[in-house]
Design goal:
The chain is mainly alpha-helical. Helix 6 runs antiparallel to helix 7. It has 17 helices and six strands. The strands form three sheets. Strands 1-5 form a two-stranded antiparallel ribbon. The radius of gyration is 26 Å and the shape is globular.
């Protein structure tokens, strides 16, 4: 009996002690100096900057190789179109998903906490922006089930690109929702952490409308987009001048300078002007060559700038660096004059010029084209020659194809974002890219990026469905809008 009483008392004391410990456990094991959630202002700053900084580098190196702005001298399996072998770039998948994840947290916070409501519109618009970049590069991707781990979805299904663009919650719908959220916002709490527009909500609406123009043109071979484009053009509430550009300004010094400035000299010197770029700029007598590239070191025959055909076999081809033109000082020593480019006036006007030339809107294609060229020269800190638009780049002169002219000018200006140049080549066929020197892809220009290898192991069932739809993750199977 005494034993039983002693055991009961001991049990009660233990129960009281455990209860007390459990009651205080959260308080004792919580760092009072560590926030349990990140403020949306900090996340917004991080998402905008991180995406722009990382994708500018990606767009310059890997995107620049695909678009044939640049050529890689060594470590160039990617330049030879072995796209499953990223080297100094060529793996944008985690950049997209990391920033889309953090951006989704902002959206969730804005809808759960009234004090954060001002973030909903910009976050929806930026989600649409990043999603378009992701699906235009890869095609079908995990989307509607992504970032739903708390609901038990850890292996998200791949959405069709058509649905990602057109369905509720997709690109176009999120742009409309983002604009509506801004227009319906009535509180006085300001948008903080906005390194694009410094809290100017009207600027976010212009950004969204320019993105709508871009999205509608991208799917114009699949959908009837004329009415939507005409309404946007008539309203004139899009990015129309360089002072309204959606850009982040790099600095000349770390930590906010362009990443090419932080590479070792050997890595920077791995990238030279492509032969395609040389021929395009030379054919137009284009003065931007002096900003975008450096005169080659060996300049004995008077030829200042020289490009190299993409995709050489570095193991059997000897190349002298001084024979070719490196990237200009704006990409290394003088990056304070460089921007991370999200959306610009010149890109918007080139898109509208194409729409006008194709009869999708009623407007002067020539005026829009000439405005875009002028703005692109200004963007790249180059004086526009007085006769450039009446001679070398004259619209529709000398049997020139106006669509080719528009897209080629857009391609030139997209050096900081080569993925865009490659995407527009896939959509339009312009400018004519060259068969590379030593192709790993049967002399074909890739029309999509392959899904990364980790998808096959981490999301196997859904990856297998997507891979089957692309001929075993083939880089020569076009995306929906390009079919």
């Amino acid at each position: 009996m005494k034993t039983i009483i002693k055991f009961t008392i001991l049990s009660l004391l233990l129960a009281i002690g455990i209860s007390s410990c459990t009651k205080d456990f959260e308080e004792l094991n919580t760092n009072p100096n560590a926030p349990v959630s990140v403020q949306p202002s900090l996340l917004l700053r991080q998402v905008i900057y991180n995406y722009g900084e990382e994708m500018s580098y990606e767009g310059f190196v890997a995107g620049g190789l695909l678009s044939q702005h640049m050529t890689a001298l060594d470590f160039n399996l990617f330049d030879r179109h072995a796209l499953k072998s990223p080297q100094l770039g060529g793996n944008p998948w985690p950049i997209f998903y990391r920033n889309l994840r953090d951006n989704q947290i902002i959206i969730n916070q804005s809808r759960a906490t009234p004090a954060f409501a001002v973030y909903e519109g910009p976050a929806l618009i930026f989600k649409a922006y990043m999603t378009a970049g992701l699906t235009d590069i890869f095609g079908d991707v995990p989307y509607s089930e992504a970032f739903r781990g708390l609901e038990g979805i850890v292996e998200p299904a791949y959405d069709l690109q058509e649905d990602i663009y057109l369905q509720p919650g997709g690109i176009l719908d999120n742009l409309d929702q983002g604009i509506a959220a801004i227009e319906n916002y009535s509180s006085s709490i300001a948008l903080q952490g906005d390194v694009l527009f410094q809290g100017d909500l009207d600027a976010w609406v212009r950004f969204a409308n320019s993105l709508k123009i871009k999205a509608l043109m991208r799917i114009s071979s699949k959908e009837n987009v004329s009415a939507g484009l005409q309404a946007l053009y008539d309203d004139q509430n899009y990015i129309s001048s360089n002072s309204q550009n959606a850009v982040f300004n790099f600095s000349d010094s770390e930590p906010n300078n362009f990443r090419m400035a932080r590479l070792r000299a050997g890595d920077f010197n791995n990238f030279v002007m492509s032969e395609t770029m040389e021929e395009v700029l030379e054919g137009l007598n284009d003065q931007r060559v002096e900003v975008l590239f450096r005169a080659r070191g060996n300049n004995g025959n008077g030829e200042d700038f020289n490009g190299l055909l993409n995709g050489i076999d570095a193991s059997s081809t000897s190349v002298t660096l001084a024979d070719y033109s490196l990237a200009g000082t704006i990409f290394r020593e003088n990056t304070g004059a460089l921007d991370a480019n999200y959306m610009t006036a010149w890109e918007t006007n080139f898109l509208l010029a194409e729409a006008a030339e194709r009869g999708l809107i009623t407007a002067s294609a020539q005026t829009l084209y000439e405005t875009g060229v002028t703005q692109a020269y200004e963007y790249w800190n180059t004086a526009l020659p007085a006769n450039y638009l009446t001679t070398d780049a004259a619209y529709a002169a000398n049997a020139n194809d106006p669509i080719e002219q528009i897209i080629t000018q857009k391609w030139i200006a997209s050096v900081i974002n080569g993925y865009e140049g490659w995407i527009e080549y896939r959509r339009t066929g312009f400018p004519a890219l060259k068969t590379i020197s030593a192709s790993f892809n049967n002399d074909l220009i890739p029309v999509r990026m392959p899904y990364p290898a980790e998808e096959a192991s981490l999301n196997a069932e859904n990856y297998n469905v997507a891979a089957a739809a692309t001929n075993d993750n083939d880089i020569n199977v076009p995306v929906w809008w390009d079919e």
